[in-house]
Design brief:
Layout lengths: L5 H7 L4 E4 L2 E4 L2 H4 L6 H14 L7 E5 L4 H11 L3 E4 L10 E6 L4 E6 L7 E9 L3 H12 L3 E11 L12 E9 L2 E5 L1
Parallel strand pairs: 3-4, 3-7, 7-8, 8-9
Antiparallel strand pairs: 1-2, 5-6, 9-10
Helix pairs in contact: 1-3, 3-4
Bound molecules: 1-O-pyrophosphono-5-O-phosphono-alpha-D-ribofuranose and adenine (ADE).
1-O-pyrophosphono-5-O-phosphono-alpha-D-ribofuranose binds next to strand 7 and helix 5.
Amino acid sequence: MDPTLEPLARSLRSAPVVDRDGYDYFVHGVTDGIPIVEPEVLKAVAAGFRERIDFESVDVLVAPEAMGIHHATALSTATGVPFVVVRKRSYGFPDEVAIHQETGYGESELFLNGVEAGDRVVLVDDVLSTGHTIEAVCAALEDVDAELVDIVVVLRRVDRDREGFERSVTALFDVRVVDGRLEIVE
Ligand SMILES: O=P(O)(O)OC[C@H]1O[C@H](OP(=O)(O)OP(=O)(O)O)[C@H](O)[C@@H]1O
Ligand SMILES: Nc1ncnc2[nH]cnc12
């Protein structure tokens, strides 16, 4: 185990799993902002991403609302790279791109603003599950002719079907839910 990630690994082992209409959903500071977000865990997330990705030439981090935001904030302060949030609200700006997002338990609309053509982008989120959110945001980034440098997530579910999803994603941990408990796959 990467020692940088130990605070994250430790806290994940006690994450409760709840049933969201048949979808086993883990609850953790990383993915939900509750029961608590530990500064040590946020620091580990930022450090873990920095160990894996070169942010030197990155212009902007792009974080879907809501649970990408605290990771993008930690990463932004650690790297000096600014970030924009893909909001769940429309601002009506002329270049705004609307995104339809579907997860394993719901759907909503997202709106991309603030990314320019040619911007070198790292997409930051908490969890990769079905991959639909990342796929939809990537399509919007392609619409504005941004250059996608990398996609980073804290946790990648390995117990979910991502048929047709072929993007390369850098994850700090692969995880799965077994018998109602969150497991790190080493
Ligand atoms: O791979 P997927 O199946 O698309 O799931 C991943 C997405 O689901 C969660 O967002 P959610 O829409 O629940 O919003 P939140 O960030 O506000 O909790 C999470 O933050 C990811 O963005
Ligand atoms: N908190 C979470 N737990 C499990 N699956 C998820 N997919 C998106 N968010 C999730």
